[in-house]
Design a protein that fits this description.
The chain is α+β, with helices and mostly antiparallel strands. It folds into 2 domains: 267 residues, Zn peptidases (Aminopeptidase), CATH 3.40.630; 119 residues, Alpha-Beta Plaits (2-Layer Sandwich), CATH 3.30.70. Helices cover 32% and strands 23% of the residues. It has 9 helices and 18 strands. The strands form 5 sheets. It has a 6-stranded mixed beta sheet, sandwiched between helices. The chain is elongated and about 80 Å long.
Length: 392
């Protein structure tokens, strides 16, 4: 069985490795993961992507090679540390039954659990019913999601793979994920002296009107999914201008657009362009351009009857003694490596379940509860053995 003390120690060790994206990236983290798996008498494989960046994969062979594989996807990168912390963000400090630090929740706690599942399988006397695979990926927090794209393009995945991302869900099963489009909008105006502002075109003003109109247009959309709720729009950053007394000649904004069925990525791109053009029409001489960031990410949903979903429900009941929580939404606001596999392959066997909660991810004083690590370890151990999706 899995040692909770080792899961805790591994989570702390991972938090102490700086793998911010953008920033130092995951190079040292990938090296640590590879060494940790090798020390557990496993045979990890380094899968290079770009420069020194590489995914790390390892497999425990199952008793039945025809069985669908259980593939666990856990990313190694984190978002930047940011501001507002009251505890050291890279110390892996334990307090009040929680491990604090950037990435503790999203998702180094889940990665530590997965590593210990594979180690425990290797140390056990028997084989799991089917293959169990761990792929520790890079670049999940960036627009391109290069790690999972590289795995897909290399033919890593099989059509009947049962995919699990142990991302923070508060130990709830997430079967649906919102679609996501990141993009950069640039508005080009005309610079002028602020004392002669009528001779210029204020790009910041135009951008503000675009953001306001697009937000109101988005909020008026009639779409609401039974799991995912309503679509969401955030203008994450705006930058523009030269000096206080100069009419801004340009303005740049980054948009985060999250969609639900039946919306499409191409549809929201067209919607934005229509809004921008309707605003800019009132400012002769202004122009704009749109840069699409990374891959378009359509909304995806696993089948309630897929082996991974049924196996997770069975494993949770076996280990926790109750049904997987189903009284609230079963959707996931964030887009995960599992979501991208579903989008790229059309698979309906990609689910999300793990320790920590989404509302603690990407925050100051991020933490993962140790109790969540314990329950996640128990459920994933059962999922890999007695409740393997290949048995369902």
């Amino acid at each position: 069985m899995i040692s909770l003390d080792q899961v805790i120690a591994d989570t702390q060790a991972l938090v102490r490795i700086d793998s911010q994206n953008p920033g130092p990236l995951e190079i040292q983290c990938a090296e640590w993961v590879g060494n940790r798996l090798a020390d557990a008498n496993l045979a990890p494989v380094r899968l290079p992507i770009d420069g020194d960046r590489a995914n790390v994969a390892v497999q425990i062979s199952g008793a039945d090679p025809t069985c669908p594989r259980l593939v666990i996807l856990a990313h190694m990168d984190t978002i930047p540390v940011g501001e507002g912390w009251t505890v050291p963000p890279m110390d892996g400090q334990i307090s009040g039954g929680r491990i604090y630090g950037r990435g503790s929740c999203d998702m180094k706690g889940g990665l530590a659990v997965a590593i210990n599942v594979l180690e425990s399988l290797a140390a056990s006397n028997g084989q799991p019913p089917g293959d169990v695979v761990l792929a520790a990926t890079v670049d999940e927090e960036a627009p391109g999601m290069l790690g999972v794209h590289s795995l897909f393009e290399s033919g890593f995945f099989r059509p009947d793979d049962q995919i699990l991302a142990p991302e923070p869900t508060g130990l709830r099963l997430r079967i649906a994920q919102m679609g996501l489009r990141w993009l950069t909008l640039r508005v080009h105006g005309r610079m002028a002296h602020a004392g002669r502002a009528h001779l210029g075109i204020d790009a910041n003003h135009v951008m503000a009107l675009v953001v306001n109109k697009f937000k109101s247009t988005f909020e008026d959309l009639p779409y609401e999914d039974d799991i995912l709720g309503r679509p969401r729009f955030t203008c994450g950053t705006i930058r523009g201008g030269v000096a206080t007394n100069v009419v801004p000649p340009s303005s740049e904004a980054n948009f985060d657009i999250r969609i639900v069925p039946p919306m499409t990525i191409s549809g929201v791109e067209e919607m934005l362009r229509n809004v921008v053009e309707s605003v800019i029409a009132d400012f002769p001489g202004a122009s704009y351009d749109v840069e699409l960031l990374g891959a378009g990410r359509p909304p995806v949903r696993a089948s309630d009857d897929s082996p991974i979903v049924r196996a997770l429900r069975e494993a949770f009941l076996k280990e926790v003694g109750e049904e997987l929580p189903s009284g609230g939404p079963d959707g996931h606001e964030a887009y995960t490596d599992a979501s991208m596999v579903a989008a790229l392959s059309g698979s309906d066997s990609c689910a999300v379940f793990g320790p920590g909660t989404t509302d603690r991810a990407h925050t100051a004083d991020e933490f993962v509860p140790i109790a969540d690590l314990e329950h996640a370890s128990q459920v994933l151990w059962s999922l890999a053995t007695d409740c393997h999706p290949g048995l369902i």
